[in-house]
Structure formats: structure tokens, C-alpha cells
Amino acid sequence: MKFLPLLIANLFRKKLRTSLTIGSFAVALFLFGLLVIVRGAFSQGEEIAGADRLVVINKTSMIQPLPISYRDRLLRMDGIKQVTYQNWFGGVYQDPKNFFPQFAIDVADQRAMYPEFNISEDQWKAFVEDREGAIAGKSTAEKYGWKVGDRIPIKGTIYTGAWEFNLRGIYDGTRPADDTTQFWFHYDYLDERRTFGKGDVGWYVLRVTNPDLSVRVAKTIDSEFANSPFETKTDTEKEFAASFVKQMGNIEFLILTVGGVVFFTLLLVTGNTMAIAVRERIGELAVLKALGFSNRFVLILVMVESLIVAFAGGGLGLLLAKLFSLRGDPTGGILPYFYLPPIWIVAGIGTALLVGTAGGILPAISAMRLRVVDAIRRV
Amino acid sequence: MVRVDGNGGAASLIHVRGLDKKYTRGGEEIHVLQGLNLDVDSGDFVAFMGPSGSGKTTLLNLLGGLDVPSAGTITVAGDEITHMSASKLTGWRARHVGFIFQMYNLIPVLTAFQNVELPLLLTKLSKSERKQHVETALQLVGLGDRMKHYPRQLSGGQEQRVAIARAIVSDPTFLLCDEPTGDLDRKAADEIMDLVGRLVKEYGKTVLMVTHDPAVAQQAQVTLRLEKGSLVGAPEGAAKP
Ligand SMILES: Nc1ncnc2c1ncn2[C@@H]1O[C@H](COP(=O)(O)OP(=O)(O)OP(=O)(O)O)[C@@H](O)[C@H]1O
Ligand SMILES: [Mg+2]
Fold this sequence. Notes:
Number of helices of chain B: 7
Number of domains of chain A: 2
Strand content of chain A: 15-25%
CATH architecture of chain B: 3-Layer(aba) Sandwich
Number of strands of chain A: 12
Radius of gyration of chain B: 18 Å
CATH superfamily of chain B: P-loop containing nucleotide triphosphate hydrolases
Bound molecules: adenosine-5'-triphosphate, magnesium ion
Largest sheet of chain A: 10 strands, mixed
Number of domains of chain B: 1
Number of helices of chain A: 14
Order of helices and strands of chain B: EEEHEEHEHHHEHEHEE
Structural class of chain A: alpha+beta
CATH topology of chain B: Rossmann fold
Shape of chain B: globular
Oligomer: heterodimer
Distance between the termini of chain B: 12 Å
Largest sheet of chain B: 6 strands, mixed
Distance between the termini of chain A: 33 Å
Helix content of chain B: 25-40%
Largest interface: A-B, 25 and 29 residues
CATH class of chain B: Alpha Beta
Number of strands of chain B: 10
Order of helices and strands of chain A: HHEEHEEHEHEHEEEHEEHEHHHHHH
Helix content of chain A: 40-55%
């Protein structure tokens, strides 16, 4: 590319200005990356939701229990293939800051319900056989340095007292978005030791035989238990995750507004920078044209300059965001899925280039339209 | 042979007939060039003089294909440029015209070498061929040892010599100089004029130059004056050396 020296020389002409513009892109795209990560962290449940899974909770609120007896009634209903149940434990490991979700689980059906979690046959068997056994997700185990065989003390907050579990296995997710922070132990162990709420479960998760009929099955379930002391609210896992996110506020809206404002500002910054860059070079652009460089060449020259700045800055910002995400969840457990997917890096670069194009186009066109005779007269 | 009476043969290198240029500014019409005729042969060196605002730059811009006339024709080496499309004219400029302006000549962020190389980027020459041409041109203007210098590291006269090297590097049909010594002191101006004189005498270049300086104009074979929109002079009396 024989025109490269000309391009590079232009970029390095005002090093401070170029760096500042690149910096603007970097900051904006870093923020973009963070917003994507946070959005992903909140909507992770939706993304990984099983299409054929339903969640049944107490109609009053998620923290109200449901009776264990519903399990058999659910299994007898049409369109339901499998049923499992879970109970929130809410204990504290060493320090209240160390958050990870703990579930008392239905040992018999957990694994069949969640095939996305990988765990070795041996570890699972050891877990099933140990009434005080537990399984931890890979990231939680790594975070606290747990090894299989460790005894894990957890202080109960809902179910008060000192609880201890034997770590029998560590599971991993099969997709990047899978939550590997959970901590599972036997429901029977919880039910036996707790002093209240015996025979209650937190919620049911069930698999339908045909995902297309999910909505109808959900309705049937809720009408089956209507007018009972424990009315139910059944949703697909996806809706359930979505309603959970909604409780956190309208994150999507926040992200769009913040992102929109940032990119609009960036557009103004780029447009202004390129306009100045063209204006101070009018004489030179005129000389290039006098030498026989075409109007189109001048247009492309300005555009490419704008795009290089956008690409360099955008790339830098996204790289920083990626590095940031690799350090893991900065909140200490609230956002277990802290990940910047490659597709969003591509989207970010695309957006940066779009802003670079939009910001550069008007100055580039004015450079293209510039008449040599006028430019040379302008002293 | 330079003529302004419109009787030159069609074979002359630059052949201008009935050239008109009007500008309108704020509703008022300025008739700068009025039916101007000019014939210039290959190897001629012409100086244009005239008071400020008489239309010297306008004429040069028209001859260089930077602007279009209101009427009349300009034919260069058989090509009539007055009816070329803008993009065709751009290509024509690259092949036929070497410009030297009073200022704004060099790109400040490029070295002398890179500045001189610019016109060659528009040709099909290879990198090594370009290098050879650029070095030859810079040596010819006496700046073989300043190739890596940036314009701000050169004196005004040296900058103008780089501009001359750039104007001749692609071996154009003719050179157009608009007050090339206007910003220089006497000594530097003399050096530039010696150089231009050598280009004409030793290399047979065709040069058309605007100047305010009679000493500079004297170097040319012919001096023409722009008066009331057309050229006057004594081309017959000015013998070629
Ligand atoms: N784009 C334009 N619009 C309106 N008028 C113009 C334009 N360009 C030139 N003129 C007018 O045309 C006339 C001739 O201008 P030109 O620049 O050719 O003169 P000049 O002989 O080169 O003068 P100088 O010696 O000062 O350089 C001037 O009156 C100028 O104001
Ligand atoms: Mg002038």
C-alpha cells in the first residue's frame, strides 16, 4: 500500500489529538463492553434457560414454600416428564461477603433435570451415598480453594445453626454462560435437621414432554392448585428468569440510554476532530488535488483516517473490557456470569466503525468537494 | 515561439483561443480574462506580469486545468482540456502539469523524499523506480543530501526547490509557477531562477511563470503583460537565446 506513509503521517501529525480521539473511542467501547457484560450477567438465566423446563413457585411470592406432596400430583399430570424440587438455604461461608447460592436439592432427579452440568460418575455416586455430602460449582470451588473431601462449614441464617458438609464433587458447565457458582446438598439432610417448614420445598422445576405445550401445561398446573392453601404460579424457565431480571429494574433501558448518549457524544467528538483535521489541511489537500489526486482519493483518505482511529480506539476499549471480564465477577458473587462474548466484541468493533464512518463522512465530503482554486486563494 | 495575436499555428504546444473568465461576486460581474489568445511552443519560457488583480493566477489556473473558463478553448499537445470532465481533467493534470505555487507547496508531515514521490504514486512505477526518479529529481535541484528532511527543517528556498523537484519528477509536459520566488529573499530567488533557467536550457522544459519581480521576469525568454483581460507583449522582439 504505497499511500500508507501519507495516512500514517496524517495520523501522527497531531499526536495528542489523535490519542485523545482514540482515547474517547477506548473509553466508550470499554463502557460498551461493561454494559454488555452486566446485561449478560443479569439475563444469563434467560439465555441458558431450558426450553422445555417450567418453574413452579408459590403464587404469593417466591419465598413462600410449596408442599412436598405436590411432587406426586405433578408427576401424575399430563405432559409432564420429570419433576425435581429445590430449597433455598441462604447460609454464610466464613464471611457474609462470600456469596454463592446454596440449594438443598432432590438428589434423585437433579442430574436428569440439568444435563448442562457436568460431573463425574464417581463423584456423583459419592455424593449420593453421603447424607452430608455436597457438590460445588467449579468457580466457587476455585474461589475458595476447595478440594473434594474438604469439610465445608456453613452458618445457617434461615435455618440457624452450624451446618457442615463434605465436598464430594465439583461440577462444571457445558456452556460459558452456565452458572458454576452453585452449592448443592441433600434436601433430606435439610428437612431432617431444620426445626420449621418440614415437608416444604422452595419451588419445583419440571420438564414437559412437548415444549410447544409449555403454556398449556403451566395453566393446567396453576388451575389444578387454585383455591388451595398453596396456590402456584408456573412459568417457563425463560420467563421466570426474565421476571427475575425485571425485579432488578429496567436494565435494558438503562443500558440503551447510557449507551446511546455515549455513542452520540462520541459521534460529535469524532465529527469535530475530523472537521478540524480537514480544515487545517485545506492547503495540502488542494496541493494533492492539483498534483492529480482525485476527489475520491481525498474522500477515502479522510474516511480511512477516521476509521483507523475508530478501530484502534474501539479495539483498545474492548480489549480492556475483555481483560476486565477475565478477572471475574468484581461483586464477589452477585454476578456469577461475568463474560464478554466474542459476538459482542465484533458488534462493538462494528459500532465503533459505524461511528467512525458517521463522524468522518461530512468532513470527508467537504474535503472531496474542496476546489483547488478556492483553497489556494484562502490565505 | 510565443504569440499572443491568435495567429499561431494549431501545432503549438499550448494553444489558447478566445479565453474568457468571468466571476460574479455579490451580483457584480468581474470580467477578468477577455478573449485572450496565446501560443506557446515546447521549450519556451514565458513570464506573465501585470498588476495585482489583473488575472495572472486565474490564467495559470485555467492553463493547469484547475478551473474552467467561461468561454474559449485551451488545447495542450492536441488535447482540448476545456471540455474534459472533472475526473478526466484530474488525470490529465497528473500527466501533463507540474505546479509550483508561492506557498502551501509541501505536505509538512512528509519528508522531502516523500513529497517528491507524491506524483509518482499516481503512476504504475515500482517502488525502486520511484526511488530512482525521486533521487534524480532531488539531486537535480541540489538537495540530494536533504531527502529525509521535513519541510520545517528546510529553508524557504530549499522548500521551493523541493517543490520544483516534485513538479518535474513525473516529467510533465509543462511547468506552471505562480510567483515561485514571491516569499524568498534576493539570493534564494536568484538560486531558484538559475534552477528554472537550467531546466529550460539543459532539459528543454516548457515553463509558464507569473511574477511581480522584473529581475525574475528577465530570466524568461518572453515577458507578457496582462492588461484589460488579455496579453500584450513583444514576443517578436524577444529573441530566443
Ligand atoms: N473565486 C473568485 N470569485 C470572485 N472573484 C475572483 C475569484 N478569483 C479571483 N477573483 C477576482 O479576479 C481577479 C483576478 O484575480 P487573480 O488572482 O487572477 O489576480 P492576480 O493577477 O493573480 O493577482 P495577484 O498579483 O494579486 O496574485 C481579482 O479581481 C479577483 O478578485
Ligand atoms: Mg496571483
